[in-house]
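Problem: given the chain below (54 residues), write out its structure.
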Amino acid sequence: MNEFLKENEKRLRVEFLPPYAPELNPQEYIWCRWKKNYMANFCPENLSQLIQRT
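Solution.
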């Protein structure tokens, strides 16, 4: 990755974001609500159970 960035430094700029910043990534609010309400304590045994739950 560093080599690629070096080769393309004139057209690319790297932006470092904090590890968790929901104000910069609003979908985090949706995931948080989903994990607390719909998927809490749920461990599907297979893909069809996961699909049915979602």
